User: Fold this.
Amino acid sequence: AGDTGETTAAVTTKGDGTYEIALVTDVGNIDDKSFNEGAWNGVKEYAEANGVTYAYYRPTEDSTAARVETIGTAVEKGAKIVVCPGFLFEEAIYNVQDVYPNVYFLLLDGEPHTADYSTYKTSPNVHCILYQEEQAGYLAGYAAVMDGYTKLGFLGGMDVPAVIRYGFGFVQGADAAAAAKGLAKDSVEIKYWYSDVFAPNDDIKTKMSGWYTEGTQVVFSCGGGIYLSAVAAAEAADGKVIGVDVDQSGESDLIITSAMKGLTESVKLSLTSFYAAGKKWDASYAGKTATLGAKDKGVGLPTAASSWRLEKFTVAEYEALFAKLADGTIVVSNATDKPPVTTVVKVDYQS
Amino acid sequence: MEEYVIEMLNITKSFPGIKANDDITLRLKKGEIHALLGENGAGKSTLMSVLFGLYQPDSGTIKKDGKPVKISNPNDANDLNIGMVHQHFKLVEVFTVLDNIILGVEPNKFGFLTKKEAREKVVALSQKYSLSVEPDALVEDISVGMQQRVEILKMLYRDNDILIFDEPTAVLTPQEIKELMSIMRGLAAEGKSILFITHKLNEIMEVADRCTVLRKGKLIGTVEVAQTNREELSKMMVGRPISFEVEKQDIEPGKTVLKVENVVVPSKLHKNNAVKGISFEVREGEIVCLAGIEGNGQSEFVYALTGIEKMSSGKITLCGSDISKASIRKRSLLGISHIPEDRHKYGLVLDFSLAENLVLQHYREKLFQRFGFIRFKEVRNYARRLIEIYDIRSGQGPDTIARSMSGGNQQKAILAREIDKNPQLLVAIQPTRGLDIGAIENIHSLIVKQRDSGKAVLLVSLELDEVMNVSDRILVMYEGKIAGEFEPSKTTVEELGLYMAGAGDKARSTGQGG
Amino acid sequence: MKKVREFLGRRSVASFLSSLISIIIGLVFGYLLLLAFDSEKALFGIKQILFAGVSSPAKIAKVLYQAAPLVLTGLSVGFAFKTGLFNIGASGQYMVGACFALYTGIVLRQPWYVAMTAAMLGGAIWGLIPGLCKALFNVNEVITSIMFNWIGLFAVNLFFSNTPKILANYYGSANANRTANLAAANARAIIPTLGLDKLLKSPFMNISILIAVAIAVVAFIVLNRTTFGYELKACGFNKNASIYAGINAKRNTALSMTIAGCLAGIGGGIYYLSGTVQYTIEKVLLSMGFNGIPVALLAQSNPIATIFSATFISYIQVGGDAMQPEFAKEIIDIIISVIIYLSAVSLLVKGLITRLAERKKEAAPSPGQDTAQTPDDSKQEATS
Amino acid sequence: MIILADIIAATVLFAVPLLLVALGGMFSERSGVINIALEGTMIIGALFGCLFLNFADQGGWGKLHPQLAMLAAVAVAAASGIVYSLLLAVASVSLKADQTIGGTALNMLAPAFAIVLTWAIQGQGKTTIYIPNWIRITKATLGMAAAAGREKGFWETLFFKSMFLTTPIAFLLLAAAIVVMYKTRFGLRLRSCGEHPQAADAVGINVYKMRYSGVLISGFLAGIGGIAFTIAAGSGFQSTVAGYGFLALAVMIFGNWKPWRILGAAVFFAFFKVIGAYSGSLAFLPDFKGVGSSQYIYQMLPYIVTMIVLIFSSKKSRAPKAEGIPYDKGKR
Ligand SMILES: Nc1ncnc2c1ncn2[C@@H]1O[C@H](COP(=O)(O)OP(=O)(O)OP(=O)(O)O)[C@@H](O)[C@H]1O
Ligand SMILES: Nc1ncnc2c1ncn2[C@@H]1O[C@H](COP(=O)(O)OP(=O)(O)OP(=O)(O)O)[C@@H](O)[C@H]1O
Ligand SMILES: [Mg+2]
Ligand SMILES: [Mg+2]
Assistant:
């Protein structure tokens, strides 16, 4: 069950109708318990702790022009910094970064470029954060197989780069664990499917239900609110789910772990730095792209006792693995153009 | 006075813009058949609806057995044992006969239907009054005559003893009318009182005890039928004498206009053919009448003739050209006009204006369109001309929405449209159904005028009076075949009736035998 | 004659007034709603609703940009209404229209007007099939249209998924879930702006609203001036009588749905060829088609009035967007639905008014029924 | 074999909302009112039902008496459906407005209202009302021992994998609908109003009252259908019922306005919908190798098959004759 008890006003204002920190959504809602919510929580926590006004805006349609327009609205409403979660903002930021030189932008999951990808440019008022989702996926896949699961599922939202990196990382991690355990070829199976949508729906639930009935033990639900569909199916079949982006263990007892990227933390850190520098990016942020991975603790699995629901795989083993990722002993491919080669795991790519 | 079961005293009822009943008093005696006569729109249905609780009178009182009563809805009427057979049957087509009879007074236990006792009561009633019905048949599957019997049973089932019949005979065949008359007599003999609306004077003469005449919402008078005659009644009703004979010139029929050879038309209702190979001709300057009881293939034949349905074999020739396979529009262009039986369903687009309806066949002509654009000015002018010639009465001339016109005027509009086409062949089906005698006179004279101008007319009618009066030649149809051909001057209504009932062959053969 | 004209004038005035009254009541209701949520900011909210649409050239551009496809889906629904059919399938026709337009523009590399023609064709096909089902097999067009909405949705997804050249990732993007950005794939397929975008300083501005208006005028003329429209309406009002009069009712039913499909298809084309949006693989029916229903109803199916009703709805939607973040923009939908609800009721009031007026004048019988589809409101407007 | 049980269970799960809502539509249309607002009414039912479940969850007592709480939630959904459909009844029966227009307005109103209300209650941007996980009927609910391990048998999968209180309720309501429609005085009168209101009026039946009843019953059923769908879809309430209201309308027409056939149509439709999701698991189904995203072929399937069946069965289809025509006592 969700934390519907929380009724914190999402908008605080000094009364003059301006909002200093703005978040503009791409698609999906800020209550998706995943990507958007992770970023929004960063904004909210920082703003509330520091008494800054904040608000979020929804564009009128899914287009660069509308995103540009909505950023404009946010600026009109007094935004000093605009947080833009999602690579769909790449062109929009490219278009506006020089139009509003005195407004600062935090772009998550992307880097500004033109519509035809011919020119990339990040102006000094923009800071970009990319995450090594493949590492988070790798950790989740490795942990699941180590915990004894042999029939896995990957439920992706849309096959956009971040999701693909999670998915291919998951496959690589599972394969590595299976190899480490010395399992026979094809003894670990992964069903792999993109639902083409970030919102939950009845079709996804039915499909997951079928997977669980066929023996799938755990599904890595990767993207927005679709975890709801996976959890609903798992509940009926006593299956398990792996969460994504943020620690989703609170959403259901069936979520054994989550492949996280530090959205909330990095947004909060960026905002802290922004205000510390006097409402602007300092040199380490201005026009820079940060790629956060294990080495920066930018990705990982939740290790709090309440979140750790893996039985055989221990936190200590996890931390050892994590260290290897952080120091580069283990390198996970971040290629998104073709599926990773596996040695043990059999992957069933479904359409 | 004790004598009257129902007294409607000084009833006035207005609708916006019209006084439908103006100070009308009508008294009904126990056990009598009381006819109500009047032109279309005279206010007969309104008066009866007031008695039945469908409308509230603006003023006036109703007494039952001498006591004033208030009838504010059909339930009240039912409680006072007043029942009504409506002008347009109020039956649910997809319900069974039994369901229709019990509707509104369903026998039930805790809201659950207990149909068994209902069925027994219905069967008993239908035997007692010889109203044969099939309790489990769907209403949509039974004949109009049986539907009427269902309506009567509805009243009897409710133990009504004041029975209102609103134009019950307009939709019946001669045989069915006869039956109804005897049923009514039987009911009256039982002590039930009957109010009977009709436009047909001979029915009044035959069955009614007294007759009340209305004209334009006002009471003209109540007369003892035994002491009056048709001419007098019609004069009371219309305000002028009416000629019952249609005046016709004698003309020699000319060339053959329509030639029908062995036409077979399949039926939509059952597997058999509806029309089983008929052949005949219609020539210039003659009115040929297809007589017959409804359901003997006349309608289907006309559908085939006008192209609405396909015939399975045979040949139809119009003025020498074979139209067996031609489209509806082609046939229309070649000179067939026709007046359909159901004017609302087939004759008019009720939501179009009168003008738009009057060009329903012609809008493609050069005069009314140029390059596919309608010339509304011409359309209106044309409509105005027809309105004048054919005396079509309506509120706003060409721009009147057809729906708001009275039945008679709607019919006139159709006639105007069809006759003004100056067709080689005019096909008219039941053109006077439900109209008052004034309107009938008018329509008959239009049809005859058409014939007199040397055109061919094919008339389909169930009314034997009309058949005898108007036509030059009569073809009786029975079970999809032509059972006999007659000349009106050399036959009688009785003989026609026999042939229509299928007894023609027998009559002929016994006649030959004897 | 003058009297009649006066009366007719009054009738269209009455229908305009009834819509206006509904709109005013709807807006008052909206204001009360805003008050209920946040009394301090309610005034700000209603100001946005009322005036944001004209607060800047860019906002005007946005109003027109959103209105253009609405006009077309509204026309689609309204055209079918006029001919006695309920086209609830505008959504599917819209999506298929968009698909045809994008394929023609991106893969076949055709200019915008060719792509637009393709959109029309796509919508036509998606209207024709339910039309044929109705004409030939008498299958209720409501159910076939609903089925074809979904079939259209998935068919378009399937088609896009199997046409790599149409997707954004073929043109360098990382995104395989949406069609290519027209600017990157084939700029000629973008609807021209004729400098309007510069004039109003908005990337949303192009000639699509002009196209929509032109099509509305054509639809008006076809319905009210031509023999073809006369036939279509006759079939809509009374199929049997039309058949009796020699009109091919089956053909007209199929044609009418086809034309409705064409209109919705152009709506899809006009939106997706604007160069701003990319078609995303969808799992739910696009609302633009359904939004055509209120547009048509508010316009009482009159093609010319459709232009205004679509613009109005788009206008207050822009106002609703401008209310954010203080208020949820969904409040606008509430206002629109209240207006539609009231207009359903006020049509009756209108009928009553005209009937009374007429009774007094002529003391004669009057139109028996006043429904949403008073057949010749529009025609009479034009002739008087 | 278990997969078969799973498919049947899923089919029933999704057939239930379609069945309930289509039955609702049937009552309304049989009384003479076209209820195009089913979609909106479902949303309202789901909204209040889910809010109630949430309330029960937070109160803590829901978990203690899950099925009782669920029953109450169904009642809340039904009641809110009735209240909402009252809006349609007032417009289309009392005010004699065009039924399509009123219905369209209500369809538009419902999701917007739901979002605005959800935000008002849960906070801005909180679009989902989560459904507690204790509502499912399990073996434990019935006091039976839960089977050990996750390998479940055929019957267990069939009856307990996706069983909610709404399922038995739906079948009870179906039985009730059949009885009410064909065995009671009320049913006979209701049907007469949809076929020939003038006839009903003439025998003393209050047509307005009957039509109100029809519309309100449809609200009752659509409200329950709304929560049944939301539970079946398993994604919480997000101010939508994904077009199921319109599908139910189609199911009703497909079912020829008759309860048994509506059941058939709902199951038929749900089956083909479920089959698509299982296509990867069922070897005998073609997997369309070489076609990208073949899931869409299967997702189209139910609609295409329905179309084909409709074409072949259309001759017998017959809508209530007077549906859609406002009844006016004064008019003839
Ligand atoms: N519901 C109504 N609304 C308005 N006017 C009505 C209504 N019913 C009847 N009228 C008016 O009352 C007049 C009388 O109508 P009524 O139906 O009683 O005539 P009638 O004598 O039965 O005619 P017919 O012989 O054609 O059946 C009509 O001319 C009509 O103008
Ligand atoms: N809904 C209505 N509103 C206003 N006037 C009406 C309405 N219906 C009928 N009228 C008026 O009632 C009068 C009579 O109509 P009515 O339908 O009774 O004619 P009729 O001759 O009885 O036709 P029918 O043969 O169909 O019974 C006409 O003058 C018509 O203008
Ligand atoms: Mg009459
Ligand atoms: Mg009458």
